[in-house]
Amino acid sequence: MGRSSHSNTLTGWREWVGLPDLGVAWIKAKIDTGARTSSLHAFDIQEFQREGADWVRFRVNPWQDTAEDAVLAEYPVHDRREVRSSSGHAETRLVVKLRVRLVDREVVAEVTLTNRDEMGFRMLIGREALRRGYIVDPARSFLGGRAPKEARRRNRGRDAATGSAPQ
């Protein structure tokens, strides 16, 4: 059995995670040991050159069914990977490195950028990130705590102040 240099941190099958470099305090993620690389819902993905290096500009919607609090980000392209979805569809995705706060710890994760509009979670945390000292309990959820009620309402596409659907 392999050893980790970190103490083991227990995580559930789904967690509220943070992306500190993007200013995203809360985004709901599925913890997926079947996926190698983590994945983030991104759109308006545009590659460009900066000082001779490949970069990517993209937008992130942290909430399901609403563009509220959308974030614009620019990162160096770390890699390009052929990824096969659970439905068997293969696509080449750009990979960036992002800091991810998962159960009160931060790890740097390789994250592919893709449209996850049809998926139930805006983010998926894969094995490469989990290898940094996480143990997954598939019977539990939100071991790192829940996002504040305002954030959970936004994630359901509801206005935090009124509880009504956005216009």
Automatic annotation (TrEMBL):
Top-level taxon in the UniProt lineage: Bacteria
Domain Retropepsin-like aspartic endopeptidase: 11-143
Protein's recorded name: Retropepsin-like aspartic endopeptidase domain-containing protein
Pfam families in alphabetical order: Zn_protease (PF05618)
Taxonomic lineage from the root: Bacteria, Bacillati, Actinomycetota, Actinomycetes, Micrococcales
Region (Disordered): 146-167
